[in-house]
From TrEMBL:
PANTHER family linked: WD REPEAT AND SOCS BOX-CONTAINING PROTEIN 2 (PTHR15622:SF1), WD40 REPEAT PROTEIN (PTHR15622)
InterPro entries documented for this protein: SOCS_box, SOCS_box-like_dom_sf, WD40/YVTN_repeat-like_dom_sf, WD40_PAC1, WD40_repeat_CS, WD40_repeat_dom_sf, WD40_rpt, WSB_SOCS-box_domain
GO biological-process terms attached to the record: intracellular signal transduction; protein polyubiquitination
Keywords recorded for this protein, A-Z: Repeat, Ubl conjugation pathway, WD repeat
Species assigned in the record: Megalops atlanticus
Higher taxonomy: Eukaryota, Metazoa, Chordata, Craniata, Vertebrata
Pfam families named among the record's database cross-references: SOCS_box, WD40
Protein name in the entry: SOCS box domain-containing protein
Pathway where this protein functions: Protein modification; protein ubiquitination
PROSITE patterns referenced in this protein's UniProt entry, alphabetically: SOCS (PS50225), WD_REPEATS_1 (PS00678), WD_REPEATS_2 (PS50082), WD_REPEATS_REGION (PS50294)
Domain SOCS box: 368-410
Length: 421
């Protein structure tokens, strides 16, 4: 399957309506033949930013070498071209692909290989991609070759979300419609996963804290966030009860915040302190848009790499980006009744966010680069190693504690769009 792209030189200024700088879509969609639909349920950049993974429906995943052709906006012509790069790969998973996750770069070690039965993983592999499938299987692929290494079996329902532990290990966390989280050690693919039970329904989303101490998860029809210990594989506690149905969660890069997305008649983003369970910031849908459009589910929320921005996608907008502490979005797209956004992700080096839609398309948007303040950089550096309770015990002024615990941002605000400000 080929893909095509359109490019644009438009870079929006802060607070303006954005247009995509690039769009990918299937050129020749395969026949359905009883397999998957066309939805792009997941898009991801590799940790080093060298690859982009695109689940474009029908059980197909495209691995595209980054940067894509003309992604820098240097093309002199808006003509559509076909992406052709010898590093690009097409993976046929045979089932609907719901979740994608790139693995780390394992430390190289002589003499470690995997045998013909794929019972052990070679530490010399540069980059892995995990794909969560409709039948409960997780397929593990070698990115540079496109080879299937092995399958992970155990889930009894759709594998909806996947995330690798961000500590350089080969620990993979998966969330499924079978109401469980499973924790896999990919150095021992034949070993049974640790199973975390307790969700009341399908697991929609899971996220691992940067220090790998906690897993956050949300499930269908539930108004509470679940927190689990990745060290002891036990349930820690639920966070709050927001009277909305949670669909997505993501830890900030320093682990001091947990963003959740939820909706009922309107949508809401909450920023939690995962250590205390306090909601620090609440962002709710523009009330005028809610009256005009109604039933506008939010689908995903993601933090940017430096922790300054939040991206979100909803049914009526392809994308919005909010900067921490600001009263209006940095970027928002036009309101359209059926934008059908499903997922979003930031490039690890910043500057770009990608969104996926129900029609199998991917759009890329320019994010204005922001230089983090010294206070933000200091806060992120300290909070990566320090809990809220430890910060509050420090012999420092209360105002400084508020900054370090993000309580200087506390508040509730409405996400007024450009038309209704």
């Amino acid at each position: 399957m080929d893909s095509c792209m359109c490019s644009s030189n438009d870079v929006p200024r802060t607070g303006e309506t954005a247009a995509p700088i690039l769009e990918l879509k299937p050129v020749h969609p395969p026949s359905l033949d009883g397999r998957a639909g066309c939805e792009t349920w997941s898009v991801e950049f590799s940790p080093d930013g060298s690859y982009f993974a695109w689940s474009l429906g029908y059980g197909i995943v495209k691995l595209l070498s980054w940067p894509l052709q003309d992604i820098g906006g240097h093309t002199s012509s808006p003509d559509v071209g076909v992406l052709k790069n010898p590093k690009d790969k097409t993976l046929d998973c045979g089932q609907t692909v719901w979740g994608l996750a790139f693995g780390p770069r394992p430390a190289r070690s002589a003499g470690r290989t995997y045998d013909a039965n794929q019972e052990a993983l070679s530490e010399s592999l540069a980059l892995l991609l995990a794909t969560g499938l409709n039948n409960g299987t997780i397929k593990i692929w070698e990115v540079t070759t496109g080879h299937l290494l092995f399958d992970l079996s155990g889930h009894q329902g759709v594998v909806r979300d996947l995330v690798f532990a961000p500590n350089g290990s080969l620990t993979l966390v998966s969330g499924s419609r079978d109401k469980t989280l499973r924790i896999w050690d990919l150095t021992k693919p034949g070993q049974a996963a640790h199973v975390l039970r307790g969700h009341t329904s399908w697991v929609y989303s899971c996220s691992v804290s940067p220090d790998c101490s906690m897993i956050a998860s949300v499930c269908r029809g539930n108004t509470k966030v679940y927190l689990w210990s990745l060290r002891s594989y036990t349930f820690i506690r639920n966070l709050g009860d927001i009277r909305m149905f949670l669909v997505s969660c993501d830890f900030s890069p320093d682990g001091a915040l947990l963003a959740t997305a939820a909706f009922a008649s309107n949508w809401e983003i909450d920023l939690w302190d995962p250590y205390t369970g306090d909601i620090l910031v609440t962002l709710q849908e523009c009330s005028y848009c809610n009256i005009e459009i109604m039933d506008n589910p939010i689908r995903a929320v993601r933090f940017s790499t430096e922790g300054l921005h939040l991206a979100l996608v909803t049914e009526d907008r392809a994308m919005q980006i909010w900067e921490m502490g600001q009263e209006k979005p940095v970027i928002e797209t036009e309101v359209r009744r059926f934008s059908n956004g499903l997922c979003c992700t930031f490039h690890p080096q910043g500057g770009i966010v990608a969104t996926g839609t129900r029609d199998g398309h991917v759009k890329f948007w320019r994010v204005p680069r922001t230089v983090p303040s010294l206070s933000h950089l200091s806060r992120v550096a300290l909070r990566y190693f320090t809990s809220t309770h430890q910060v509050m015990a420090l012999p420092i002024p209360s105002k400084l504690k508020d900054i370090l615990t993000y309580r200087n941002l506390q508040g509730h605000q409405e996400a007024r769009c450009i038309l209704h400000r």
